[in-house]
Design a protein that fits this description.
There is one protein chain. The chain has one domain: Aminopeptidase (3-Layer(aba) Sandwich), CATH 3.40.630. The chain has five helices and seven strands. It has a seven-stranded mixed sheet. β3 and β4 form a beta hairpin. The longest helix is centred in the middle third of the chain and has 14 residues. The N and C termini lie far apart (about 35 Å).
Amino acid sequence: MDTIDTIEKHHLNPVTPGKTTIRYMKKRDITEILEIERQSFISPWTAPMFFESMSSPIYKNFVIERDSMVIGYIMLYSVLDEAHITNFAIRPSHRKKGYGTRLLSFAIDYYKKKGVTDYFLEVREKNHDAINLYRSFNFMVVGKRKRYYSDTNEDALIMHLSLR
């Protein structure tokens, strides 16, 4: 068992509707995560980037599995009452089936129990599917980062959800 599972097991209640499970990300998941990452992003994260976040005490990384296959992941870090979503993707073959909604809902509920009231993220301005998902959770656009994505010089929308 990874250290994070041992330390916080009592805080994590996996969601298991049918054969779908949400759990902490583990090192053994990286191969599948990198595959999803390459399918989802122009400039995918590397394995060392994932390992670094997994070893950080302020990060929590979750995966959603279907029939023992990782179909998505979400990564957040928190400081005091704020959390920032840094990376979130669902395997293309499993998109628009509710898995992203389920995973985002789980992550927000997890942090809400820890006293987090504000959530932030950046999203590509043209990623309408992701923006619509975030809006369905009442995230609001609060700003823009010009040319945030150096691979395309695309702007990022800064989105915020307040549970205050």
